[in-house]
Amino acid sequence: MKLSRLPFLLILLAGSTGIFVAQIPGNAPYKNPKTPIEQRVEDLLRRMTAPEKADMLSGSGWMESQPNARLGIPAIKMADGPMGVRNWRGASAITNAAATSPVLSTAFPAGIGMGASWDVELVQREGRVVAQEVKALGRNMILGPTVNINRQPLWGRNFEGYGEDPYLSARMGVAYIQGVQSENVIPSVKHFAANNQEFERHRIDETIDVRALHEIYFPAFRAAVQEAGVWSVMNAYNKVNGLWCAENPMLLSQTLQKRWGFKGFVISDWGSTYSTAATVAAGMNLEMPGGEPMRVWFAKPETGKDGNGAGWLTRDKVLAAVSAGQLKQEAVDDAARRILRVMFSAGLFDAAPAAAGEVDTPEQRALARTAATESIVLLKNEGGALPLGAPKIRSVAVIGPSAAVARTGGGGSSLVRPKYAVTALDGIKEAAGTQTQVGYALGVAMQGDDAGQETPQALARLRNEAVELARKSDAAVIVVGYSYKLESEGFDRPSMDLPAGQDELIEAVAAANKNTIVVIAAGAPVTMTRWIGRVPAVVQAWYGGQEAGHAIGDILFGAQNPSGKLPVTFPKQWPDSPAYGHYPGENLRTAYTEGIYVGYRGFDQRNVEPLFPFGHGLSYTKFDYSGLKITPAKVAAGQPVQVTMQVRNSGSRAGAEIVQLYVHDVKSSVDRPLKELKGFRRVMLNPGEARTVSFTLDRSALSFYSTAKDEWVAEPGAFEVWIGASSRDIRLKGAFDLAQ
Ligand code: BGC
Predict the structure, then answer these.
(1) Model confidence at 351, in pLDDT bands (50, 70, 90)?
(2) In terms of DSSP H, where are the helices of 156-268?
(3) 288 C-alpha to center of ligand 1: Å?
(4) Which of 135, 310, 386, 523 falls between 20 and 30 A from 145, CA-CA?
């Protein structure tokens, strides 16, 4: 440094660290938005002391990273997601649903419902709106999307993710991230990797073979990194193959960083760290929570009892690990570098994180309603039971524990408090208009919600009231399912069965009224064996966010055509699931013995008939598939395959169809699933309208992960392309050859 510059620098003695630090000139390159990002990062890093760098590695509170006043580094201000901005009550307070001054935001359908829309563009718009609300609330990071795979139906958080298929999850995750990042808000794709059960989520050690990791549990994360350029990844609580995800070099440095080229930072899940040197060296960059809120929380006996770990990446511990030679300074620098890179990319140094934008605008409401509508899956519709309405149906009995209460989302960190929420009952009344009378009876209380209504006498009285109402109505709609207290982060569902009394209620009402429609508000499949044969129609409504009621009304009365398709297989019963017998594990270990045969891959492999297959969803109109063309018939290695076909709306009303493309490898040196989803399109068609749909299959669509070669391999030979309206309703088949 030239001596002549000295007057511009005020040399200070930083009391606590005992080293000299310089005041930063206003024209420092990192402060200039025109300086390229990498130069800004390196310039700032050069000016940071070792303790200042170490400070970057842990939070300052429950939802903030550490700011640095000397250098002008702001805190990253986080908010939970992904289905909206979670209720949160102030700068560093622990978020919870019972907060006294709640933060209100738009509640979108749970991830599983967004997955059921198969609408990539919709999910991208959702991401954008969520990010706008994050900013409106003065924050700059959203903890989502969740892209963990629905491995088994009991996982308490199945509702958060996009279902069982890695390709669909990847498309949805990428869209959400692109939406969020387009608003300069930092997303955090979570939970890396294989957070597939809540049972002992902090201690469970999952044995997963490399092929299943790459083919099933990784693809959505890989796409987030390589296609969306995601800025941050959150590690999972669990262990994978013997090591906690926060200190797992195979997951973080080898896969995320080296193999996929991830440039952003890894954030810990809240309380998922158990070491200092091993964690930083493995590639975990920012430990959350931090500061005093972390200490208060961690001192509580239940925090430790649950198996949380925290407080390992504090300044003192990081500096001590470096001085003891256990941790390289470069690893600390790399963590700080990654965090700063993202902060510069998201403009955190340049724009004041002041509140901008609004919450609960007409556009946001409209998008929430569209999303809720598109998420609904018509599972069964015999004899045209749906849509309801005059002249056939002049009175409807609306019944059930989720009819007059809006079940907007599942429980835990993703639960949003919206400004309002439309119940199914209100939505149905609105849709029914003046032509159809709507009556209401509770039928049965939601399990655990009202002990007074769970006595045998109360149960009988409630059920009789419902049966009486159903008997004198032209149709009955029973809205059943779970509540956020019964299906939630933190624990798994004890079984696939509906909560107490709901099956019996459906049976009793169905016996009284043959036009009984069951609407299910739940985040995962439920057992329907007792009554599925006795009701003409079943609708899967998931947790539809604040506009769920309107969407249910619109679908039931035909104002909207149902177009959702299942992003997850609905088994007849839990023992049919490929994960049955390999969950929840013994002695804190669970072996993913089913390997790559997750979801429909497993049902196909074992030839088990599901209740409703992956990709299934009915419509009020009809679609014809024709004209499959695959070019070229023999494709050179590395060249794409073009697939086209026509879909035509041959019914009498407008509607969207979700056309699905599955690849079948005719002959392979390794076991492969019978079929794998490798493309889909949501096509909106007027009656009589036809559209050509095209797909491009590249090498990745034909490949499997070879454990021998430790890479993706597309073997030469014959492949088939199966085009279906569901994974088990294949309408067109064609073939091509992949040349040597
Ligand atoms: C959850 C995360 C969440 C975090 C912060 C954890 O318990 O697993 O998904 O983002 O808490 O609330």
Answers:
(1) confident
(2) 166-181, 210-212, 219-226
(3) 10
(4) 310
Quote the ligand 1 centre to 361 CA distance (angstroms): 27
Q: Which of the listed residues 88, 134, 413, 415 should we mutate to test ligand 1's pocket, taking the one with most ligand atoms within 8 A of CB?
A: 413
**pLDDT tens sequence across 193-203:** 999 999 999 99
* Marked catalytic residue, from 55, 80, 165, 269: 269
Are the CB atoms for 732 and 720 separated by under 8 Å? no
Q: State which of 92, 270, 286 you would mutate to test the pocket of ligand 1, scoring each by most atoms of that ligand within 8 A of its C-beta.
A: 270
Q: CA-to-CA distance for 559 and 332, rounded, in angstroms?
A: 57
Which stretches of 118-203 are DSSP H helices?
A: 120-136, 166-181
Span from the CA of 269 to the centroid of ligand 1 (angstroms): 6
Report the distance separating Cα 684 and Cα 660, nearest Å.
14
Residue bearing the CA closest to ligand 1, atom 7:
270
Strands 516-521 and 475-481, by their bridges, are parallel
Buried b (16+ CB within 10 A) or exposed e, 156-172: bbbbbbbbbbbbbbbbb
In which band, very low, low, confident or very high, does the pLDDT at 577 lie, cut at 50, 70 and 90?
very high
Task: Tell me the CA–centroid distance for residue 643 and ligand 1, in Å.
Answer: 41
**DSSP characters over 643-688:** EEEEEEE-SSS-EEEEEEEEEEESS-SS---S-EEEEEEEEEE-TT
* pLDDT score at 8: 37
User: Residue 690 and residue 388: Cα distance in Å, rounded?
Assistant: 28
109: left (phi over 0), alpha (psi -120 to 50) or beta: beta
H helix or E strand, kind and range, residue 329: helix 329-345
Alpha-carbon gap, residue 311 to 319, rounded angstroms: 14
Query: Which of the 8 DSSP states describes residue 541?
Result: -
**Atom 3, ligand 1: which residue's CA is nearest?**
413
| Residue appearing with tokens 């640095």 | 68
Contact 427, 373 (CB under 8 A): no
618-642 pLDDT per residue, tens? 999 999 999 999 999 999 999 999 9
Q: What percent of the chain has pLDDT over 70?
A: 94
Three-state DSSP class for residue 521: strand
User: Could you count the other beta carbons within 10 Å of the beta carbon of residue 366?
Assistant: 11
Q: What is the SS3 assignment for 80?
A: strand
Per-residue pLDDT averaged across 161-178, rounded?
A: 98
Q: Which residue ranges have their beta carbon within 6 Å of ligand 1?
A: 80, 95, 143, 190, 269-270, 413
State pLDDT tens for residues 119-157: 999 999 999 999 999 998 888 999 999 999 999 999 999
